[in-house]
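Q: Start with the shorter request: fold the first protein.
A: Done. Sequence, then structure:
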Amino acid sequence: MNNFRKLIIEKLLERIPPHIKPIDYLMEVLDISKESMYRRLRGDISFTLEEMTKLSIELKFSLDELIETGKETHIFFNLSSMPVENPSDVFLIMLRQHYQCIQDIINGENTESLITVNSIQPIFTVFFDNLFRFQYYRWMHQNQDASLKYHYSDIEVPKEIASLQQQLKSVSRKVTNLTFIFNSNIIENLIQEIHYYYKRRLIDEETFHVLKGEVSDFVDMVEEIARTGNLDPGTKINLYLSLFNVETNSYYHKYDNKFASYFFLYSIESIVTADSRICAKHRKKLYSLKKYSSLITQSNEILQAKYFAQQRAYIENLTNGLQNFYKL
């Protein structure tokens, strides 16, 4: 077997989930016989370009990774080019990717997850229907060619997205061994966005107060996690407050001896890499940030109380100067 064929086979076996039999999976994806599949896995014959393209899409790796393997100067990132232009479909695809990531962690072994948070992403609002709807509305308002008068009341969350929200709500409660590193004010951007749409008269006063209430509920949920150390019994979540500015939302995940690092450009879109060198550097950076952070989960009650009082003060400031806005 030549080295390139060996490299291809190693890449395929590395990417196939451990609970799935590789031979059965590859036969189904490529629609070929068992004997033909064994000949490819033994290295007797090569995979065709069409087969490799199909597998790279299914298993989420780049053919460039195979071609450039061994060149230390090349590191590959994945910024998915969406096969659709409708921003609602993009939102759905991104949520599916989050869902699959969570499932991989739940089903994996030896898992580790480190998450930096400097703003509230849509995935964090799945427990709050109106906030989630607002995140969808904001995404649609900013990414589709709609009238500037596109009102919050005009938005309707598609059934498929609403269904996926409920699924995410369920699976998110099962994830364990999570470490969050929070910025000093994680709700600032969300508050400013609600403030903006309210001042534009695209959100009415009743909705404004409903959203304000759910932001408060979100803070209550995070405070309860800090108090108990879990979202549901049997899970473990650690919350840290960073002394330094958290520059961006990012995730580092390890499961089944696989690694992935996510760096978020926008609210829900991310650049992803499974390159072991970058993931190791990302993990090292996050652990360094954690050293300059304070644990507030089931500890440091004074700092914990001060932090959540500060978050609630930010929420109250949201209404300052706006109480009589609609009366102007």
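Q: Next, the second protein, separately.
A: Sequence, then structure:
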Amino acid sequence: MREVQFVQGNRGRWEQFETELRQESGGDVSRLADLYVGITDDLAYARAQYPWSLTTQYLNDLAADAHRRLYVNKRGGMAAFKTFWRESVPMSFIECRPYLLSSLAVFIVTYIMAYVVTIRDDSLVRGILSDHYVEQTIANIRSGNPMGVYKQMNGTDMFAMIFINNQTVMAISVLYVLATIVLPTYYCIKHGFMVGAFHALFVRNGAGLDFLLGVYIHGAVELSVIVVACAAGMQLGNSLFVPGSYPRLESFVRASRSSVRILAGMTPFVFVAALLESFVTRHSDMPMPLAIGIILSTLAATWWYIWILPQQLMKKEM
């Protein structure tokens, strides 16, 4: 079925459902539940036939709103707290998924570009990190202490500094959208270049494995958070420039709520990344199996929460 026919055949029911959702009283719950079943069926069809269309995004937003109205907002106390982390935040990742893919692609491409350039000439990494930082890193590598830069501060002080800095970076990645939609993408590019160039610097000096087993102990989580934050910023910006079927202001408000939930949901991961960078990364002499185990387990846990859990929730509701 062509998308235009699909929309024309179901528009009335969708608009009725949207009207029910907007009622201050919450509408007839049983009626909402019946309509919700139809919306999730339509969403499943749209995802299969028109995966990247505005229709699919619109239906996804409707389904997420209905889910929160029917299953989340009716709970209170500790149940509401658990539901926020187990359902509300993951459902926001579903809404943000196209931007998450875009952000991840931008980061990977710029990482590879910076790596290739720096392998041939270290001018890029010197321009990004400064000559002093680069020379200090090279000296640490040659002295057999490649992660020496992570040992210069007291662990507790370093944790506090890193946690505050990473929370700020995450918020800025989203709030940059108030200037222009391009800036969240720029922030993603910036970090891709920085980490890719830093990686190549280690490889140029014969410490590529040390980089992977050291920096990615905390980087597996930290870089994932940056990708997610930039994706939330892209989503927020897109709501202004391409509001879809909603009025521009309402589209922005809805995207803002989703972005705030995502930022809140990522805070525990920022906390974990700061702990690892402050107290674990500095132990460059740890056994390789332990380092690999930490990297893979944190990476898997992070992306399970960002990608797999939301998918499981959507399948459960359909």
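Q: Describe the second briefly.
A: The CA atoms of residues 220 and 299 lie 5 Å apart. Residues 96-317 form one domain.
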